[in-house]
Amino acid sequence: TSSIFWMYAWSNSAMHHIFFPPRLQVVALQQNPDCLSAYVGYQLALYFFEKGRHSLAIRIADAIYKAEPHNLQSLTNLASLYRQAGDSQHADRLFRDLSPHMTVDRGFYMEWGTSAGSCGYYADAALLQAFSLADQGDYRPTDNEVAKRALAGLGVVFSNMLKGFNDPAILAALAALPVLEAQLHLDSTTSNHFARHAEHAKELGCATPSAGQAWEYFRDGVLASAHSGVSSEVLARVGDPGRLTFSQLEGLTRVRRP
């Protein structure tokens, strides 16, 4: 493990091309991929991805996933790189091909929802993003990072769905999102997303709901999205959308239902 660690360390230095050329790094990884942890390997893949070497980054992430096929973080990382490289279909297929009997986490559902949305599968994307926030989505609690990203992602999906037809329930849910996020700690990206969601809802004639209305609108919008045609692969994972509860998210947002 130490040799791969130092290979990674040198890859971040200005002299990495002298000591460990990228081609040798990939060869070493392919010959002995099990000695590279998923975390360190993904950092190496990200390094090359950010340098514009997308194919190399994806080959590294793919080698790690093949060495650890039961490590779902490796699968999620690989899918994320495919999506960011412009191949959302490949990313989406990675998630759909995974056995529905394998236990996954909130990050899995959130990234799958993002990939599905990039493919135009908006009903799937909405339900997956919502499930990443639901009490049933993981035995571990929802945290601020998941909440802000998934709610922002839902807003993107709702906005895209409204381009095709103006469903009142989905429009109301879009207007509810900025209310639900008001108590979260946001970064500039998610803050801008929520500002756009609020403006879009107002442009379509929906006023900002009260805190009490927001939860009802949110839930109704998720159900309306699901009823617009969710795939069998997503339903096999999520089950009946009507059973979903969001008590953990409620605690995070501090928006209480009436």
Helix content: 55-70%
Uncertain segments: 1-25, 27-35
Count of discrete alpha- or pi-helical segments spanning 4 or more residues: 15
Mean pLDDT comes to: 85
Cα shape: globular
Beta-strand percentage range: under 5%
Distance between the termini: 54 Å
Question: Radius of gyration, rounded?
Answer: 20 Å
Described by strand count, sense and barrel closure, the largest sheet is: none
Class of secondary structure makeup = mainly alpha
Order of helices and strands: HHHHHHHHHHHHHHH
**Oligomerization category of the chains in this entry:** single chain
The total strand number stands at 0
Q: Your description of this structure?
A:
With 258 residues, this protein is mainly alpha-helical. Helix content is 69%, strand content 0%. It is built from 15 helices and no strands. It has helices spanning 2-11, 16-19, 22-31, 38-50, 54-67, 72-84, 88-97, 106-118, 122-133, 144-164, 168-180, 188-203, 211-226, 232-238, 247-253. Helix 3 runs parallel beside helix 5, helix 4 (38-50) runs parallel beside helix 6 (72-84) and helix 10 runs antiparallel to helix 11. The longest helix is centred in the middle third of the chain and has 21 residues, at 144-164. It is globular, with a radius of gyration of 20 Å.
Task: Offer a quick outline of the entry.
This protein is mainly alpha-helical and 258 residues long. 69% of the residues lie in helices and 0% in strands.
